[in-house]
Design a protein that fits this description.
Shape: elongated
Number of helices: 6
Largest sheet: 3 strands, antiparallel
Number of strands: 9
Strand content: 15-25%
Order of helices and strands: EEEHEEHHEEEHEHH
Amino acid sequence: MPLDVELQVTDLTIEDIIKEQIKTRSGKIIGVEIDEDLFDTLVSNWGKKAILIVEPAASYSVLDRWEWRAKYGTDGLKLAAIKKLLPREHPWLGCVPWEGEEKALPLGGQIRAPGVTIEDLVKEYIKTKSGKIMGAIIDEDEFDKLVATWGDRAVVISQSDDIKKGLDRWEWKEKYGTDGLELWAIKKAFSDSPDAFKIP
């Protein structure tokens, strides 16, 4: 059984991706149905590591949904969701702090064109039914115009305060498999704090 689940999207919880609770006649939770469309959108925007399931091992390692299924033969996401819905006094509950996958999230970045901000490159934000931001659609025309004038490093995405170590959009995608520009835009929408993506 999973110890916990970690979502890379700040402010999004596992409850947000539960479509329906499956209960016995007496009202006890025995399963959940995941909103697969929402899950697919989440993975499309944030990559396979958008949701990580904490293993019940001494090392407290984490697996994505597919890795969990391959290793344990069950849907770890559903199990983690059930765990979150159980009453607080249930003996299965417990939380293990973990700070590992945030290394693949941007701290911020820099746009070479004076006065242009990351918000200027966002066409729209993708939100859950409850209004929580889980993705961003970049205005590709605006981005292309920026790159045409300022070059491939018109936008540099960084994981540290040193912009020289930052990656352009293509380098980020090659290294992490996600769109760093979208992730930076989402982070900016939540907070200007460098700890906005810190996993509690």
